[in-house]
## 1
Amino acid sequence: MSENVLPHHHNDDERAEHLREQLDKTDNFQIVAEVFKQLSDYSRLRIFWLLCHCEECVTNISALVNMTSPAVSHHLSRLKANNLIVSSRRGKEVYYKAADTEQSNMLHLAIEKVMEISCPE
Ligand SMILES: [Zn+2]
């Protein structure tokens, strides 16, 4: 049995030890913080949410969110760097959509839960 984990004894130490094991994996928390940081900008959130529901090129995304193409491009590159969206080139056009990952799906759901809207599909 290991030594007492916490200075005060309110709960069982085994549980505290288990929690601390997870808390000590700071890299994991940094990854989550980085993902949430990407979504701390409401414009980026709007673009991400849009791309959860359609695949579009920069020009159309810009029109939909009412922003300039360079501003949209900047947000797209940040979202892509964090693996929240993917892109594919077809002819001259590059199309963007949300990545089909558990992380991306979870954020999609989280956004709609917080906004208290149902998914327009
Ligand atoms: Zn949705």
## 2
Amino acid sequence: MPIYEYEPVNQEQGCPRCRHGFELIHPAGEPPCAACPDCGRPVRKIISRVGVVIKQADGESGRVIDKIRTYENDGMWSHAAELADSHAAKSKDSGLKERAMDNYKKAGMDPS
Ligand SMILES: [Zn+2]
């Protein structure tokens, strides 16, 4: 099922849920929702998450690797390791897996 992202038509008037935008899983075949489910104020659909994921598969990977690099730069080795590890499993990237193992070691953790 697609996930749609919404923002309030008037951002000054949104409730805590919709003021900064929110996501809704959308049943196929139904029109996009026109009002916030919490406060009922008018909202508009921004993007369809499904389309974005297909178009930006490489972009997502790049963002994860940027995040890993940020953790490494900050010396947050266990964070970097876990993120690299989970993304390596998802993307089947063996280089990333080695990077995860390296970061586990720097964190003082035993990767096995
Ligand atoms: Zn609202």
## 3
Amino acid sequence: MSNITRREFIRQSMLLTAGMVLVSCEDEDQGGEGTYESPGMLLGNQLTKNVVIVGAGMAGLVAGYELVRAGHDVTILEARERVGGRVFTLRAPFSDGHYADAGAARIPPDHDMTLGYADHFGLKLDPFYPDSSYYVNLSGDERTLVSASDYINDPPWEGYHVNRQDFLKIRGGTDILPHAFADYLAEQIHLGAPVESIEQNSNGVVVRISDGTELNADRVLCTVPLTVLNRIQFNPQLSPEKLEASSGGYYYFNITRVFMQFVNRFWESEVLNGWGNTDWPEEIWHPTWGRQGPRGVLLSYLKFNRADEIDLLSEGDRIEHVLSRWETVFPGVQEHYEDGTSHSWALEEWSGGAVSWPSSEQEAALGAHIGAAEGRVHFAGEHASDYHGWMQGALVSGLRAAVEIHESDSYII
Ligand SMILES: Cc1cc2nc3c(=O)[nH]c(=O)nc-3n(C[C@H](O)[C@H](O)[C@H](O)COP(=O)(O)OP(=O)(O)OC[C@H]3O[C@@H](n4cnc5c(N)ncnc54)[C@H](O)[C@@H]3O)c2cc1C
């Protein structure tokens, strides 16, 4: 079809006949990408629905992507001035084109949706951990060097089923993945659009943004983390279980990362690769590993109460605190420091925490309710999945909600 897409042709024809729209996902022609399969492609012909998605993190983006490709009319409202949510690659204040991830970074080999969409968009993957030089382990004042082969043949956390050597990362920074979705959804995404209320009535759903704009929808998908869900007013009110979960009844933990750029990779003189662990506890990552020097960026990855403690400090004091502790890990570290920054997920206005981490009791009592649709409002996000704290969870839950919406109401064969 030359000047008009097949979808538009069908839309116009059907509008002429019954005021109704029939679409197919088999032969979409959008931006040259719509015809090829994706891991979560929606199947079957359905009535077009007018869908509003709240949040342009991985859950909202994947749902939006598949719903648009299946022919639905989608609007994505994002509170921040950027897409990606907890996938956020920092490129400042680093020099020489260096970057480091403040959020999602490593991908286990069995996360089929994360890897599947990376492949779908043609993204390049690299091993996450170095397989050469020495890792540092600091316990008390005792520093030990661990060979790369020993280190990467262990999991990053006790009991985890994947060894370090099998983790992957997206070349160029993890945010390339949400940006790939967002490039396709440029017309659908509205940034700086915090949703304040979601009201269901007999005609559908009305979504109101902070500037007073109201949007009408057949279906709404809400992907905001539970930590900030209570900033949206729902009418009718959410179920008691969702209210409990969004009032602190479903635990989240905090993560703060402190990033430091050095004028050179001084640790290499000791045949160190810049990675390691301390018993603070803390992971030490070297995001510029494998990239052209001479400068290098290291980061301190702090969780739970260590993240809460460092959040009490100013940014300058956070960096100073890490540098002074690291004198035992990388002797002379302070002399080589050039510039730095930090990122706390608990202090982020639209996150309010890093990742959901419910106790088994919380999961048993609330887990099944968190992703359950309420009327015409659907819910997704890493918290509404079995993969808490992973992009995979956001993608799986976003796709589950997209199927719910796609298959809701009438089904046309
Ligand atoms: C420090 C850190 C490290 C991580 N490491 C990894 C890792 O190595 N590998 C991995 O796979 N995963 C990792 N994750 C987890 C992964 O980043 C998340 O599971 C995933 O990105 C969550 O996506 P989401 O769509 O569920 O939520 P989010 O990314 O939080 O998206 C929700 C969106 O909703 C928006 N929003 C909130 N309120 C409103 C409102 N009222 N109106 C409009 N928009 C709103 C937010 O701005 C946000 O963009 C990590 C996360 C963190 C924080």
